[in-house]
Design goal:
Elements (H helix, E strand, L loop, with lengths): L1 H7 L13 H24 L3 H12 L3 H15 L1
Helix pairs in contact: 2-3, 2-4, 3-4
């Protein structure tokens, strides 16, 4: 755990209890990509947050909780 803290910055709270694994970085990259898609759809197609949520679930085959979080963040980016 100490080596992980040295190589990945200071960890606090729950992050300090989760062992580092490269899949977390891959998920982060995917999440940001999905969020960019959501922002793009909202900007170019003037879609609502709830419609973007449904589109994210269908297009990327992700669960509602992920889609809800992404759509909410995309809305906040545009506001």
């Amino acid at each position: 755990m100490l080596a992980m803290a040295k190589s990945h910055g200071s960890l606090r709270g729950i992050e300090a209890k989760i062992e580092y694994h490269p899949v977390f970085e891959e998920l982060g990259v995917l999440y940001e990509s999905w969020k960019r898609s959501a922002v793009n759809w909202m900007q170019t197609e003037k879609l609502s947050e709830s419609f973007v949520e449904k589109r994210l679930m269908k297009h990327f085959n992700i669960q509602w909780a992920w889609a809800d979080s992404i759509a909410t963040e995309a809305t906040q980016c545009l506001n």
